[in-house]
Amino acid sequence: MTHFDLVIIGTGSGNSILDKRFAGWRVAIVEKGTFGGVCLNVGCIPTKMFVHTADLASTPASAGKLGVDLELRDVRWAEVRDRIFGRIDPIARGGREYRRTHRDNENVTVFEGTARFTGPRALRVDLADGSTADLTADRVVIAAGSRAVVPDELADAPHHTSDTVMRLDELPRRMTIVGTGFVAAEFAHVFSSFGVDVTILGRSGAMLRHEDADISARFTELARERWDLRASTTATGARAVDGGIRVDLTDGTSLETDLLLVAVGRVPNSDLLDLPAAGVEVDPTGHVVVDDTQATTARGVWALGDVSSHYELKHVANHEARVVQHNLLHPDEPVTADHRFVPHAVFSSPQVASVGLTEEQARAAGVRYVTGTRDYAGIAYGWAMEDTTGFAKVLADPATGLLLGAHIIGPQAATLIQPLIQAMSFGLDARSMARGQYWIHPSVPELIENALLALPLDLPLD
Ligand SMILES: Cc1cc2nc3c(=O)[nH]c(=O)nc-3n(C[C@H](O)[C@H](O)[C@H](O)COP(=O)(O)OP(=O)(O)OC[C@H]3O[C@@H](n4cnc5c(N)ncnc54)[C@H](O)[C@@H]3O)c2cc1C
Ligand SMILES: NC(=O)c1ccc[n+]([C@@H]2O[C@H](COP(=O)([O-])OP(=O)(O)OC[C@H]3O[C@@H](n4cnc5c(N)ncnc54)[C@H](O)[C@@H]3O)[C@@H](O)[C@H]2O)c1
User: Fold this and answer.
1) CA-nearest residue, atom 20 of ligand 1
2) From the CB of 308, is ligand 1 less than 6 Å away?
3) Domains, the chain, with CATH or none
4) CA dist 112 → 9, 36, 104, 338 (Å)
């Protein structure tokens, strides 16, 4: 039994907690998989590197309407894949070596294996070499993340998840994606831009159905033009057949494909941890219950990121890691996590970005709101791009002009939303935001200025 001041489970966002201020602490960090976690190895970073490449590959398809004829001659898949992972894999290896061997980490012991609790702040690690290590600690941070779900009916079928699909040996001719959320929207864009025929299966009738209904409807309409979208037909099973995979569908038919990508959501890794032994409670979806300081229900145990957060977003995990870091270092002056205005973006084509309440949520909550919507087609740079489908929609309190939500679908949505997140975070009202600063003309952010001015506020226009 080895005792530590601090044990951290998971090297994704959990790894960022340690800095020089922990130099005097005896720390253990436990990792069962690839050092660096999901975002670095199989999540945000590689997907966006593929998305950027896909944006380039899909340019010829939209250039013709501007009078420029481009041609996509080839996608050198193996080269794209190796460029991306040739950059990522050394970072994961370097991060592991740094923690294991660098003199900055003389106080840190890396345990490579799967941790589970055996009692309050007591853990057993099943190490990769088959042995076990028993640890106790004054404090434990659970940063164990989440994993992709594969429904029972597809578990035995030949399939990929986001963990594996980015490392294919070669591009398939046809790909069927089960799911209509973030992962489906991003990979459909990536692989179809590279020339793969994409079919998407869903059960909710729409893509990105958690977005504001206007955004989801527009994305679904555009998805239908680009992919074989069957938003109300999903898979009941699948099996290998000569020359491919046969997928049986809920409407009684079947389709043939070359690759099946399952993208139906993620579950927290809390079930691997024997949390009852530690007195750590989980909610009905298996997320670790935390208070606003990220403390769990067990004394001396904190949690952060996907294992406890329903947002399942890296910027949320990073924020929570900073909160936990502070609260470990300054237990008498704890800070709280700020989950008021958590944004997200879907890096598909078109991009989608959102912060705050959707119109449906505002209505359900009974808050008074007005909306302002403006099309890219209504601003000068939108003309330059000949965009006919994108728009920004903002929601505000009509009495104060304070923003309640913002939703954008179209080019650079993930970038365009940032000033709106800033306005909401710092309490800047829509009128002051629109009229209290210059907006570079003719630039894409004029879309935001115009959406803000379209809000029918109770306040007089002066
Ligand atoms: C395809 C994809 C694309 C994404 N794109 C984005 C994006 O663009 N933007 C964004 O904000 N978010 C994105 N996300 C979500 C983002 O990756 C996650 O929210 C984030 O990585 C969660 O970080 P974490 O530290 O909570 O968990 P993780 O990074 O998953 O780290 C947890 C670590 O704990 C280890 N572990 C688990 N259980 C144990 C155990 N019992 N013992 C030892 N080790 C254990 C795991 O092996 C893992 O390495 C994406 C996710 C996916 C799947
Ligand atoms: N850009 C980003 O920030 C980004 C990108 C990728 C992933 N992520 C994170 O990863 C998480 C997982 O993404 P995801 O796309 O797997 O999940 P998701 O929750 O976004 O979408 C899954 C979808 O699959 C549908 N579904 C569930 N079971 C199904 C079935 N049997 N058949 C057909 N459809 C089914 C659900 O209705 C849902 O719409 C997300 O919650 C997100 O936070 C973020």
Assistant:
1) 314
2) no
3) 2-147+267-329 (3.50.50.60), 152-264 (3.50.50.60), 350-453 (3.30.390.30)
4) 10, 13, 19, 32
